[in-house]
Amino acid sequence: MGRLPAQPVIHEVNTRVWLREVQRRTGRPVGLGGVPKAEWDRITPRGVDAVWLMGVWERSAVGRDIALRDPELRRSFTEALPDAGDDDITGSPYCVRSYTADETLGGPAGLASARAELAGRGVGLVLDYVPNHVAPDSPWLARHPGHFVQGSADDLRRDPAAYLAAEGRVFARGRDPFFPPWPDVVQLNAFRAGARQATAEVLARLGGMCDGVRCDMAMLLMNDVFGRTWGHRAGPPPDAEFWPTVLTAVRQQRPDLTFFAEAYWDLEWDLQQQGFDHCYDKRLYDRLLRERAASVLRHLQADLGYQRRLVRFLENHDEPRVASLLGPAEERAAAVAIATLPGATLWHEGQFDGRRTRLPVFLTRRPDEPPDTALRAFHEKLLAVVARSGMRTGHWELLSCEGWPDNPTHHDLLAWAWRGTAGTFLVVVNLSDHASQARVRLPWPDLGTAARRLTDLLEDTRYERPGSELAGPGLFVDLPPWHTHVLRIEPA
């Protein structure tokens, strides 16, 4: 496949759950090397640039045993899947024993076959890397104990939830600074040169298997975050930051590899500066789902170069299913916004079908839910329309929606435009439960006075307006609750 597009559209797929359902549909065991072509087609609808196969690496048997014994985890499993049994639990995909494709999924040959199937469709492959920790049975503990944060026998006696004994030593369990330690992983030491070199070596090897890498909880390895989390346990911080050191080394061998950071705490800009191509935009997610249009508007006023390197999403495996949070009309409006903004976009398998159950990543089976065929058709049309139009290859500009003293509903509208060799496009989204009206002035004086045809690419409707109106007082928009316009503007 080679390098991913500058603003890729990514479809996240829970690999084990998907393969189990493919197996049920085909009636035979299926690894990544034996997936029917129709199943690959289904997860690569028009407009998808890359598939993120989440959870392909060899998982930890020790981590699975810990999960089976954890009453809170077991409770979460049965909440999502009431009849969940031990056979449905494989341990966490983020408790990695080895960065080798799991044999139960077809092993390295199966993963290579999957990448070839995707590449044949012009679609790239994204895989995970977990920089913060490894499984308790990782070979690294015996071979490279200096890569890890270590403790003492006193630490283990005092706080066994935060430390574990392995290979004749005491190691710290992995954690972030705001939550208790994770019971099934061992903490790498981001300040150690050996750990940094080993990370670069693994990432370079992964670069031969995929086109992009999603780095889990990437901000935990930043010098200031890591230092605050571990204090004297980490030792003195090095002069150089973790990610510039690692990514520079990897790109010397894999210059076309795209890196995505799972990022929170408003550290997206910092991680972009440290070398990541794209970072999660959790702030937009929160504002779209929980706040009003004015809050979203403020977020979209950020520097365009920064926005083009964000990952916009309404769902991923860590968040609740959006269909459980928003009504169908609200979800459609938010999806139009995500699909037509600058930046990478991330869509979660099952999101198109309106699935409502958030599945713990430990499980390989999910409950049956009737698919919302209309919602799937909408999403597939949305992605296809945006891709076919080429709008996101142009220049993006945020527009203002102007109202009247006796009608404040324009505050609930968002508008932006794209312009480039593919054409001129206007997007307007009503983020409210009432009809909203505004004038949207287009910023192009060369529209002239001649009539312009406005074609709504989602609704297949057409309007004609004089260019003097569009560039002068602005296009009058009257949108019902949660409705949108995705308009191509061209000479009548």
How is the secondary structure organized here?
Elements: E1 9-14, H1 15-26, H2 37-42, E2 50-54, E3 57-59, H3 61-69, H4 71-80, E4 96-101, H5 107-119, E5 124-129, E6 133-134, H6 140-143, H7 153-158, E7 163-166, E8 169-172, E9 186-187, H8 193-206, E10 212-215, H9 223-230, H10 242-253, E11 258-261, H11 268-273, E12 278-280, H12 282-290, H13 293-299, H14 304-307, E13 310-313, H15 328-340, E14 344-348, H16 373-389, E15 395-399, E16 401-402, E17 413-420, E18 423-430, E19 436-440, E20 451-456, E21 461-466, H17 467-471, E22 475-479, E23 484-491
Parallel strand pairs: 1-2, 1-14, 2-5, 5-10, 10-11, 11-12, 12-13, 13-14
Antiparallel strand pairs: 3-4, 6-9, 7-8, 15-17, 16-19, 17-18, 18-23, 19-22, 20-21, 20-23
Helix pairs in contact: 8-10, 12-13, 15-16
Q: Briefly, what is this?
A:
It is built from 17 helices and 23 strands. The protein has 492 residues and is of the alpha/beta class.
Task: Say how many strands there are.
Answer: 23
Shape, please? globular
Q: What is the rounded distance between the termini?
A: 39 Å
The averaged pLDDT comes out at: 95
Low-pLDDT regions: none
Radius of gyration: 24 Å
The largest sheet has its strands arranged as 1-2-5-10-11-12-13-14
Content of β-strand: 15-25%
Number of helix segments? 17
Provide the helix percentage.
25-40%
User: Given the helix and strand composition, which structural class is it?
Assistant: alpha/beta
| Biggest sheet record | 8 strands, parallel, barrel
